[in-house]
Amino acid sequence: MKTYSKILANKGGFSLVELTIVVVILGVLAMIGVPRYQKVVERAKAAEAFSYLAQLEGAQERHNARTGQYAKRMNELDITVSNPTHFRIGKFTSYNWQTQWELKLTRQGASSGFGAYSVTWTQDGFQRYRSSIHTDLLPAL
Hints:
Strand order of the largest sheet: 1-2-3-4
Strand content: 5-15%
Order of helices and strands: HHEEEE
Number of helices: 2
């Protein structure tokens, strides 16, 4: 009987304190890592809007060079580009189609704590003052 109890006493394992410390450390790492991961994911989604709008800007410039005015509708442009997955596309607006245009994309769905935001683009590119996108999500322009 003494031999059996000696074998059990020598058997190693984790104590409750050690397991608690490991769980706390993993929790702290998750608190640091998850928000950063969400920010990276949302930045990638925002980049989709910037890429889409940059392509439209080029198509608008080509249309203006050919016709003397900017296109009022997407189907007038010479490109076929996939609609952004995470944004609702507005309509082209302008006060003078010969000299200017504007288009706004609005984020739809959950945005990892950044809320609803918009990205506005004109013939001069990204318009920070007309957009509500968080500074952390802006690509290096």
